[in-house]
Amino acid sequence: MLTHHLRRDRRLAVPGRLVIVAAVISLALTSCTAVSAQDSAPSSTGSSTGSTTGSATGRSSKSGPTQGGPPGAADGVLPDHTSAYNTSLPGVTKLDPALREAVQKAETAMKADGITMQVTTGWRSKKYQEELMEKAIRKYGSKKKAKEYVADPDESHHVTGHAVDIGPTDADYWLIRHGNRYGLCQTLSNEIWHFELVTTPGGTCPPMTDPKG
Q: Model's pTM, two decimal places?
């Protein structure tokens, strides 16, 4: 009789144990799922940091000459094939207005003659000019020799917006022949690409400067 009761108690206990085991397994699976979801979710901090950094970089590139790193568009660096009409670029829009207008007129006339002109460099920041000088010193070995090819920032007509460099060479030779119609003249004897507004439209170009003395 006692044995019969013990067997009956064991049979009743088994379903209860199964319920407990099932509950434990369910809790374990829920915990694992939660941890996995947390690990795979993107970090809101990382995403926010990336967006902020990108936005800050974008704003700084438009605010003015760059403070760190190499010169960029804000310093007057121009992409290839820049037109004198591309006034969205600081290197063009910061040129002296009268010079920019004269170069635009020359570009239009040149195009009619089958020549595609580009402004290779126009206005430059002091930082840009300083870097060009430093490169010239490294190339030529002394500042005296470098100044035959690059002006000091305080002396450069590019920094004041009163000079442009034009390319390619067929455009340079066209301007040498016809630039005075627009008041444009080659002003440096060793740079066929360097032009300034130094005469009245249709006037005579003054003698060129020889940087070598």
A: 0.69
